[in-house]
C-alpha cells in the first residue's frame, strides 16, 4: 500500500514541480507587429495586420514545455490601399466573412542557437491547417514600463499561399509570402 500511495503522490506532485518555472506572457498588441510582404509583378508589397492576440507559455529550464498561440483578425489587414485591402477580404483571398481569423498553435520548440529556436506549429488560414516552422529569436526578458516584466521576440517564416488554397492572381501576385513577427509580451501575474 505504501508503494502505491507513494507512486500516486509522486505522479501528482512531480509534474506540478516540473512546470514551476513555466511563465505565461500575453502579447502586447500596442508594442508588437504582424507584417508580411508578397511580390506584385517584380516588387514586394508590404502589409500588416492591426488586430491580433496571443500567449506564450515559456519554461526557461525546459523549452520542450514551451507553447505559443496566436490569433489574427484578418479584416484588420492593411496594405495602405483601401481597394486592395477590400479585395484581400473577399473570396479571391481570405474570405473574411466565412473565415474571420487565422490562428497559429505551436506543437514543438527546438533550440538551434543562443536565444534562437525553431518553433513548429499549425497555421490555419481560411479553413485549411498546415504545419509551418517559425525561425524565432528571443530578444530578452526584463522590466518594462511601470515595472511590468516583459519579454521580446521576433520571428519569421515564408509560406506558399497556394498551400492554403489562395491561388488568385497567378503570374501577377507571388506565391511566397514572407511573414514577420515583432512581439513584446507581458508576464501574466
What does this structure look like?
- The protein is mainly β and 189 residues long.
- It is built from two helices and eleven strands, in the order αββββββαβββββ.
- It has an eight-stranded antiparallel barrel with strand order 1-4-5-7-8-9-10-11.
- A hairpin with a 2-residue loop joins β7 and β8 (116-125).
- The longest helix has 17 residues, at 2-18.
- The protein is globular.
Q: Give the C-alpha Rg.
A: 20 Å
Q: How widely separated are the two ends?
A: 40 Å
In percent, how helical is the residue content? Answer: 10-25%
- In percent terms, what proportion of residues is strand? over 45%
Basic shape = globular
Give the H and E element order: HEEEEEEHEEEEE
Number of strands: 11
Which class do the helix and strand fractions yield?
A: mainly beta
Summarize the biggest pleated sheet.
8 strands, antiparallel, barrel
How many helices in DSSP terms? 2
Low-confidence stretches: 1-18
The order of strands across the largest sheet is 1-4-5-7-8-9-10-11
Mean pLDDT: 91
Q: Which terms summarize this structure?
A:
189 residues, mainly beta, eight-stranded antiparallel β-barrel, 2 helices, 55% strand, disordered N terminus
How is this fold's topology laid out?
Blueprint: H1 2-18, E1 22-27, E2 33-40, E3 43-49, E4 52-59, E5 67-73, E6 77-78, H2 82-89, E7 101-113, E8 116-125, E9 128-143, E10 149-160, E11 173-187
Antiparallel strand pairs: 1-4, 1-11, 2-3, 2-11, 3-6, 4-5, 5-7, 7-8, 8-9, 9-10, 10-11
Amino acid at each position: 500500500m505504501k508503494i502505491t500511495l507513494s507512486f500516486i503522490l509522486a505522479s501528482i506532485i512531480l509534474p506540478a514541480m516540473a512546470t514551476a518555472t513555466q511563465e505565461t506572457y500575453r502579447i502586447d498588441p500596442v508594442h508588437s507587429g504582424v507584417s508580411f510582404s508578397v511580390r506584385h509583378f517584380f516588387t514586394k508589397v508590404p502589409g500588416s495586420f492591426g488586430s491580433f492576440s496571443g500567449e506564450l507559455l515559456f519554461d526557461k529550464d525546459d523549452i520542450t514545455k514551451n507553447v505559443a498561440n496566436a490569433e489574427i483578425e484578418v479584416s484588420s489587414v492593411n496594405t495602405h490601399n483601401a481597394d486592395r485591402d477590400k479585395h484581400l477580404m473577399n473570396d479571391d483571398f481570405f474570405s473574411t466573412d466565412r473565415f474571420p481569423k487565422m490562428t497559429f498553435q505551436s506543437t514543438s520548440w527546438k533550440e538551434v542557437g543562443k536565444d534562437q529556436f525553431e518553433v513548429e506549429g499549425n497555421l490555419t488560414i481560411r479553413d485549411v491547417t498546415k504545419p509551418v516552422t517559425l525561425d524565432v529569436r528571443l530578444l530578452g526578458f526584463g522590466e518594462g514600463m511601470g515595472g511590468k516584466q516583459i519579454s521580446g521576440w521576433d520571428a519569421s517564416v515564408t509560406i506558399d499561399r497556394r498551400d492554403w488554397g489562395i491561388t488568385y492572381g497567378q503570374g501577377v501576385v507571388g506565391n511566397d509570402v514572407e511573414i514577420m513577427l515583432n512581439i513584446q509580451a507581458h508576464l501574466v501575474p
